[in-house]
Amino acid sequence: MSEKPVEKTAKGTPEPSGVDLARVALRAAKEAARARGDAARQTKQARRVGLRSGARADGRDPMALGAAVNRLITERGWEAPAAVGGVMGRWPQIVGEDVAKHCVPEKYDEDEHVLVVRCDSTAWATNLRLLAPTLVARLNEDLGHGTVRLIKVNGPGGGSRRYGPLRAPGSTGPGDTYG
């Protein structure tokens, strides 16, 4: 067999000959066939898994209600609000029975990390404001550091004041003097 002289391209690299081109084409065909085989095998497996349940556990198996709720809480990122909701349910154990009779948690602001508590009198609101740093430390110990940064204490919510002949203009009324 006689060999042809190899022609060089403008960059100085030899131009592939017919045998080299055939090798490149064969390699590309093998890779394409392998990829088609892998795709067909995955499709066949997916079809087989979808039709019947096997002895091994998979995502379609039934799960307990508690596990399903925990999975939902984790997937949605509701850990902190759920934990604070648990604190609201255990409020009497956290603050004590006496305080719990007069002060009730109303809401938790997740963005500001503020727990809002309403008290039934201004005296209890003042008492809870004094206890707030201790409660924040206790709540963060229970929930995780930084979950509650501030406890906002609200006094009793009174209804709208009536306007009458004995009312001074601009006054808010007696407020909580009798409570």
Q: What is the structural class?
A: mainly alpha
Side by side, the strands of the main sheet go: 1-2-3
Mean pLDDT: 75
Overall strand count:
3
Question: In one word, what is the shape?
Answer: elongated
Structure write-up:
The protein is mainly alpha-helical. Helix content is 50%, strand content 10%. It has 6 helices and 3 strands. The protein has helices at residues 18-51, 65-76, 79-89, 91-95, 97-102, 122-143; strands at residues 103-109, 114-119, 150-154. It has a 3-stranded mixed sheet. Strand 1 and strand 2 (114-119) form a beta hairpin. The relative contact order is 0.08. The mean pLDDT is 75.
Protein traits:
179 residues, mainly alpha, three-stranded mixed sheet, 6 helices, 3 strands, 50% helix, 10% strand, elongated
Which secondary structure elements does this structure contain, and how are they paired or packed?
Layout: H1 18-51, H2 65-76, H3 79-89, H4 91-95, H5 97-102, E1 103-109, E2 114-119, H6 122-143, E3 150-154
Parallel strand pairs: 2-3
Antiparallel strand pairs: 1-2
